[in-house]
Amino acid sequence: MDFDLSWILLGLPIAFVLGWLASRWDFRQLRLDNRLAPKAYFKGLNYLLNEQQDKAIDAFIEAVQKDPDTSELHFALGNLFRRRGETERAVRVHEHLLSRGDLSASDRDRSQHALAQDFLKAGLLDRAEEALRKLEGTAYEAQSRLALLSIYERSRDWLDASEIAHKLESAGQGSFSGRQSHYLCEQAAAQPEAAQGLLEKAIAVAPQAARPRIDLAILQHQAGQLDEAFKTLVALAESAPAAIPLVAERMATIATAAGLTDPALALLEASYAHSASLDVLEAILTLQLRSGTPMADVRMRYIQHLEREQSLVAAARWIAGEKLEHEEFHPQIQRALDHAANPLKRYRCAACGFEAKQHFWQCPGCQAWDSYPARRVEEL
User: Is 31 exposed, middle or buried (0-12, 13-18, 19+ CB in 10 A)?
Assistant: First the structure.
């Protein structure tokens, strides 16, 4: 059977035309897809800038569906889910990224860091710790260590917190000696048998820190070591004089029991002269009354304080011992003054403004260390 070459001559132009049409169609489709994906992306960005997070998420999901290989879209979507509190969906997005074999090393580290943030947001501290530990040696190492430090502080794991703080300081991330002293004080509170040694170590770690000496003085006072406790408070006055208002009352108690009223009065008077704290003044008045100073002279100190500082608390305490012209109304007036003065006796965190009746070394609100001044709200 003879083969007809005319079919070949006829088929070649047809094949060429069909191939050209197919290539043009693929090119048009590619251009269309490339236009649609950025359009959805920028639409989502616009919604995000206008704080329309629901619509932004829908737009980013659409963009991801059109271009599933773009990691940036996944990161944007995962971060949006986390900000909205939809941590399960954020975890799924970032775990999907980590499961991809074509992901670059930098994007893999970024995904791991984002996943750790998801777990932190969800309060899954164990899983967050595991994810953060995997970031050692990456560009996110410093951030992961700070997050780990926060986790260990929240879980009161002071030994691991101390280890991470040491790594951060060694890496040049600042001084963590103050925190290290707090960690030792926390350990001392949990280990009474080793408390004194831990507190002495805390003083050596941070000589200017107030807490170790205050805790040590309390420990010595409770053990009946009055002279040692007073010496510790004298050392506190030299190293951290601003903290004296926190221990003024205890100093008066220790000095009275140890027969050290005169040196205690001299120390407290010097502190009050430098900074007129009502807590220090109250301790001074306590010692003066115990040493036989007339009540009238003691009470005049409130008036002298009012000349120096405008204090509603001091005014209320002075009026409490005075006879008024209409004495029958004194109880009502006193209750009103005390009620108005009570909020002024609180301590306030300088970092977040959280107020409390007692002084905290670590703010219960924002977890910042040493953010509570030793002076009360009225005196700030």
Answer: exposed
d(CA 178, CA 183): 9
Per-residue CA distances from 54 to 45, 57, 61, 67, 84 (Å): 12, 5, 11, 20, 9
Task: Give the whole-angstrom CA distance, residue 344 versus residue 351.
Answer: 18
Tokens describing residue 119: 């777990």
Token pair for 70: 């773009």
3-state SS, residue 106:
helix
The CA distance from 36 to 44, in Å, is 12
In Å, what is the CA distance from 192 to each residue of 81, 195, 210, 223?
Answer: 46, 5, 20, 12
Q: Which amino acid is at 106?
A: S
Do the Cβ atoms of 59 and 47 come closer than 8 Å?
Answer: yes
Alpha-carbon distance of 209 to 175, in angstroms, equals 13
Q: Which residues does 226 contact at the CB level (< 8 Å), separation at least 6?
A: 220, 254, 257, 258
Q: What is the largest CA-CA distance in the chain?
A: 139
Residue-by-residue pLDDT tens, the chain, 380 positions = 454 555 555 555 655 555 544 544 454 544 444 444 455 555 555 554 455 656 655 665 555 555 555 677 777 777 877 888 888 888 887 887 788 777 788 888 998 999 999 999 999 999 999 999 999 999 999 999 999 999 999 999 999 999 999 999 999 999 999 999 999 999 999 999 999 999 999 999 999 999 999 999 999 999 999 999 999 999 999 999 999 999 999 999 999 999 999 999 999 999 999 999 999 999 999 999 988 889 888 889 999 999 998 899 999 888 888 887 788 888 898 899 889 999 999 999 999 999 999 999 999 999 999 999 999 999 98
Please give the Cα distance from 64 to 305 (Å, whole number): 69
Q: Which has the closest alpha carbon to 93: 76, 102, 39, 105?
A: 76
Q: Given 3-state DSSP classes, what are the helix, strand and coil percentages for the chain, each rounded to the nearest 5?
A: 75, 0, 25
